[in-house]
Amino acid sequence: MEISERILLSAEELFFRYGVKSVTMDEIARELGISKKTIYQHFPDKDELVFQVVEKRMVKNRTDMVCSVGAGKNTVERVVLMNEVMRQMLSVVNPGILFEIKKYYPRAWQVFQKHMQEHVLIDTVADLRQGIADGLFRSEINVDVMARLRLKEIEFGFDNQWFPPNEYSLAQVQYEFMDHFLRGILTDEGLSVYLKHYPA
DNA sequence: TACCGG
DNA sequence: GCCGGT
């Protein structure tokens, strides 16, 4: 594997587990058994490294999404599946990481924002439309408004001012949001499908 | 690895 | 004093 790719993978794993600021360039180098100089031959500074880690993760998330679209039989299953994948990820992610990136790494934050607005929003709208077509979501909902609500909900779950990590589990908060959101838009038929995944 | 500067 | 950068 390319050395630059290995650097990105190690950096991502460390950032996700411990946060971005608390992981030093020395630690990334030590993890890989290489020198800091090697890292700086591939990345001009830490800002660029963080930027590329986020960009790579966004691209991978997108391909994972496309795969998971085929995995579920219907829209409810897909939303639940996607949430399961997310919960799995969140259980090992340092909760402060999103706001840390927002505060200290504006370039990486912009890539994240752009990805959310250009890809995730469109995918979510498409999912809601499909759910309505399948008779699982209520047709009265405004799919564009509800898609935006869902994305901001997920982002809100990361807000450690409102949900201090020692008081709330990130995965639990995200589950509560998903459950509440789905119950608000499900038809009776959709609800019964949903309850097969999460019996009340 | 040691070092400088923020 | 720590850490990014040389």
Automatic annotation (TrEMBL):
InterPro entries: Homeodomain-like_sf, HTH-type_TetR-like_transc_reg, HTH_TetR, Tet_transcr_reg_TetR-rel_C_sf. Residues 1-61 form the HTH tetR-type domain. GO terms for molecular function: DNA-binding transcription factor activity; transcription cis-regulatory region binding. Keywords: DNA-binding, Repressor, Transcription, Transcription regulation. The keyword Transcription regulation applies. This is Transcriptional regulator, TetR family. Residues 24-43 bind DNA. It comes from the Bacteria.
